[in-house]
Amino acid sequence: MDIVRKLIDDKNFQIDDVKKASQVVRDSQAVVRENASQFSEVIDKTNEELSDLYKTKDKMREDYFKALYEYEIQNDLVIHIKKMRRNQTNIN
After folding, report:
1. pLDDT value at residue 84
2. How far apart are CA 39 and CA 35, in angstroms?
3. Is 26 helix (H, G, I), strand (E, B) or coil?
4. Could you tell me the pTM of the whole model?
5. How far apart are CA 40 and CA 48, in angstroms?
6. By CB neighbour count within 10 A (0-12 exposed, 13-18 middle, 19+ buried), where does 52 fall?
7. What sign results for the dihedral spanned by CA atoms 13, 18, 19, 23?
8. 21 secondary structure, DSSP code
9. Could you give the C-alpha distances from 42 to 8, 31, 36, 37, 54, in angstroms and in order?
């Protein structure tokens, strides 16, 4: 009986050692998951900021080309009016 009890105690001691090692591994994995979660939050926030910046850039580009188009239209109108005045002056 004592031999069986001793064998059982030895096995239980080995099992406890394995359980402790397994718990250490699980704890380290939890720390890694937590750090990864923090980095994911930072990455998501940065991606949102980049998206906002690209939206602002697109809006500025659109406003620029719209202003350029309006300038060209206005400039063409001024040139047309000047030609008409010149022609009218030449006729008179």
Report:
1. 93
2. 6
3. helix
4. 0.55
5. 12
6. exposed
7. positive
8. H
9. 51, 17, 10, 9, 18
pLDDT 10s digits, 34-84: 999 999 999 999 999 999 999 999 999 999 999 999 999 999 999 999 999
Q: Identify the sign of the CA torsion 55, 59, 60, 64.
A: positive
Rounded Cα–Cα distance for residues 77 and 79 (Å): 5
Q: In the 8-state DSSP scheme, what is residue 92?
A: -
Q: What is the pLDDT of residues 2-25, one digit of tens each?
A: 888 888 888 888 888 888 888 988
Structure letter (DSSP) for residue 1:
-
d(CA 35, CA 26): 14
Distance separating alpha carbons of residues 80 and 63, to the nearest angstrom: 26
Taking the C-alpha atoms of residue 61 and residue 55, their distance in angstroms, rounded to an integer, is 10
